[in-house]
Specification:
This protein is of the alpha/beta class and 389 residues long. The protein folds into 2 domains: 253 residues, 3-Layer(aba) Sandwich (Aminopeptidase), CATH 3.40.630.10; 80 residues, Carboxypeptidase-like, regulatory domain (Immunoglobulin-like). It has 9 helices and 14 strands. It has a 7-stranded mixed beta sheet with strand order 1-3-2-4-7-5-6, with helices on both faces. Strands 8, 10, 13 and 14 form a 4-stranded mixed beta sheet that branches. A 3-stranded antiparallel beta sheet has the order 9-11-12, with no helix packed on it. Strand 5, helix 5 and strand 6 form a beta-alpha-beta unit. Helix 1 crosses helix 8 and helix 5 packs antiparallel against helix 8. The longest helix has 17 residues. The protein is globular, with a radius of gyration of 20 Å. It starts with 8 loop residues before the first strand and ends in a 22-residue tail after the last helix. It comes from Phalacrocorax carbo (Great cormorant).
Length: 389
Amino acid sequence: LKGRDLWVLVLGRFPTHHKIGIPEFKYVANMHGDETVGREILLHLIDFLVTSYRRDPVITRLLNNTRIHIMPTMNPDGFEATKVPDCFYTRGRYNKNGEDLNRNFPDAFESNSADIQPETQAVMNWIKNETFVLSANLHGGALVASYTFDNGNTVTGTLKGYSRSPDDDVFIHLAKTYSFNHASMYKGTGCDSRQTFPEGITNGYSWYQLEGGMQDYNYVWGQCFEITLELSCCKYPPEDQLEKFWQDNKVALIEYIKQVHLGVKGQVTDKNGNPIPNAIVEAQGRPHICPYRTNEQGEYFLLLLPGTYVINATVPGFKSMLETVEIPDNTGNFSALKHDFTFSEAPIGSRAASCPKTPLYQELQRASAAAKPTLHIWGLMTVMLVIFK
């Protein structure tokens, strides 16, 4: 990094620290320095949220019940290097070391040989230090909401041109939430006649395979559902178009944040009410290669669509607790369903969460063999070489 910090603005009723029961959300833009629309509309979003607080009842409730982190630029050096507005690829895509930050994260399917860059490491540390539940990263060069997985193998369905995560239904819902609330993304018309996206969404792998992407890293290692938002055909449009981009995305940006309140949340404690960190809490039939675990306060957050689920809470070395929950759509109430677990006996010290640096999704084949989900299959799409995620 050329001596520049990566700045994050945090908004909420308690912006300086995490509060139990309040989920963490983030937006990240401009990880490709020449893709500038996201950087600008996140600045507009900050202004809108701050000025609407205590004036608009919906925004007020959103900020009172959500901690929102906004990083307008993950690649300030690349942005600085992009001197002239240009609709297509430029050198400013990369960071100061000439690396593509969206190919730079550890990968869940193959060993990524790229040297971890300072920007990437900073974001990885940030993810590790917060309990992020939902996220989106903002790009340019297409108009579509793309979701996990970007990479894959036969276990996740790549032979059929789709890489399906255990939470595929949730990801489709998240992508559609953005697309259907955007001024035109839902129409599915691409940036040229050869590229169309039904309903304005795509599975990342179906569009094109990439290794070391940020959204897969968030989902696998960060316990955070992230999608990639491609917001403009032109990567670096003229200044006079920025206001329209903000208006086109304004409602979608807000509606997407609300989805952090999907599903179920709660605490895992012992009989004395002490929190149990590193307890595994997952919905049956949705195994994650890095099991989703409670934070230092014993909290868990699981994004799930409305329905009936069996939630499995496990304290390593002790028995599991299986409890059936009926999850309503609580996004309008700005709070996921609350469901706590209490263990009559539990370890005094917490065992550190263990997850291999390079998990390979073959292991899920055994975990989910009994109830293999039907793959939702789309054909492979023709992609222009000039379009990059």
